[in-house]
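Mods, move this if it's the wrong board.
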Amino acid sequence: MTPLRKTGLWLGVAAFLVVTGWQAITTGAITGLLGFSGFAVVGAVILSSRPRNGVGWHLYGIGLLWTTSTILTVHGGLSDLGEAGTAVATGPAWAEAVVSGLAWPGWVLLPAIGLLFPTGRVESRVGRAIAWQLIVFAVLAGVATTVSSAPLPQTSRVNPLAVPALDAVGELVVGVPGTLWFLALIIGIVADLALRWRRASDLSRLQYRWLVFGLTVAIVAISLSGLWNAVQPGELWVEIWSGLSVLSINLIPISIGIAVTRHGLYEIGRVVSRTVSYAIVTALVVGVYAAVVTSVAALLPELTTVGVALATLTAAALSLPALRAVQRRVDRRFDREHVDAEAVVDDFGQRLRTGVDPSRASHDLALAVERTLQPATLGLWIAGGSR
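Not the wrong board. Structure tokens:
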């Protein structure tokens, strides 16, 4: 990439940071700055070294779309400073209408990364069909929302861009039929990603695991934030966790960037395995805790303190055994290399315990090292000889 184009890339990143930073200062809306800065930055990093990489352009495009939406939000004077949490606006209503329409392409771009990852191209015929449908859906939904004659969603003002003749189309696209269509496309993306993962080489599988890692952490963090905000709203630690959960969104582009540039892949199997295991166990323990508390509260409303104590003890007793059971199963799927290595070492140790054949011990040791550590070269020194 030429220095001029590289400068242009980073000017786009700077524009994102300046605009979202200004929005955070003036309105207190920090989601764009904290949650999506990684998309623009990682996209620029990938494109600086790989100018034609589709994944880099996709991430960078999400950053540019957020920048455009934020500029229009600031221009429209939109903020959540009204009474009872309602939004107010000091700028033109058309800006709010366009911001509402841009939300749909933004939602569509996020899952679409699964079609391009990790090569930057849509590899399968099914993937290309899904990609075209996503483009059509994003355009239809964005235009239909922008020209809808319904009151604007944030301030309930009259939409100056309304085209009543298109309301019927809009109801289909952004209503239940369109939502089901979009969900079906997301399911198709997941299925296409799973099939390509299954057929991938060892290195590509490591890249897919990075994507799973970033998605898992972000989804778990955001889900727990929503749960705790519903259970204990306003608590300081809940507010802190909410801020961290917003930051966790950046793990998606960061993990994608690491995978695409193929750095640091050696331990991702273990990282993903532990992440998925703890996510499953956390959801299980939280579910058991909530079920016990609500059950006791319904059956014995006068003993709510006992219910909380019983739920705490039950969740604590369940956590470690559940973690061990889940860990064994998840390791077989996400950290197979580690599981296979442990099996080789255990088999070698068993042969040493049951009987040692001096003529085969060195061969068995060298074979175990090659299968577990996979060194480029291997040398074994034996007293009285060499190998």
